[in-house]
């Protein structure tokens, strides 16, 4: 278990169909000038190398083949190419979001505060009782820390209440995904039954952050749910040899209990978002389903152009080799794989999820932001 952790942590750490989903250009009826994003490695566009550098932790995303599919070089994204956020920005006509910690220019078109390995709960929660030589992961990059970074940036974007209201009404906010890392890091000390008890606190933390952003002027917010963590290669690796045959879903090979945890998290998150809508009727809060589109690709990989061995990563291994290590292996065609280096999807996988999210954002009854 302990030998697996460095490897597991490293893994943590415009399509024509979009036009059809948009109903022939409905999205153009609302222009966004900027996007602000909070989250973990599923949304991080380059903050994690900076944060890992603070703690003198090597970050494998700084080496090829990261970024090879689209950018032609590593960009700090845990992917071979673009993330969901990149596809959304392209479709909305907004530049790719600059990482807040690694960008020296203007943030008036948006900023990304997401960091690989970030948790919803404060990092101190996970280190309680740790010995002095324990791993520093998770790092101090929680949702609350990211909101603090946003608050430090805000005075450079607007000054008066009226000016901020005008600026942020033309901005789109992404809050998440959060939750996966909270539960993953908890596996070191807790059973899945104990981890399930953390869900209400994590949902409450996310909700408090959303309320803070609304008070700062955010009007349009997209809140992604959790992926099916029972299908994530790092989680499957942890339980390999421990879980019995009846603990796996026969049709997919995913772990039942971990997927049920994600379903529970997503259910409570949606309930909380409805409460936020009731309290803030002037804000539009859209839930973005991360679970269903990934499960669709896991259940029917061929339908999406993926190979049948859908739970196998494209880059990394064998053993504890990081993606990009000399001993690591990279698949011949990343577009034929769902998972890139662990829980992170390939650009091809993210593209399909982005299509689904854009459709939800545009068509969700009562929650339209366009």
From TrEMBL:
The keyword S-adenosyl-L-methionine does not apply. Residues 1-20 form the signal peptide. SUPFAM superfamilies: SGNH hydrolase. Coiled coil: none annotated. Pfam families: Lipase_GDSL. It comes from the Eukaryota. Keywords: Glycoprotein, Hydrolase, Signal. One of its GO terms (molecular function) is hydrolase activity, acting on ester bonds. Belongs to the 'GDSL' lipolytic enzyme family. This is Esterase. It comes from Oryza brachyantha (malo sina). The lineage of its organism: Eukaryota, Viridiplantae, Streptophyta, Embryophyta, Tracheophyta.
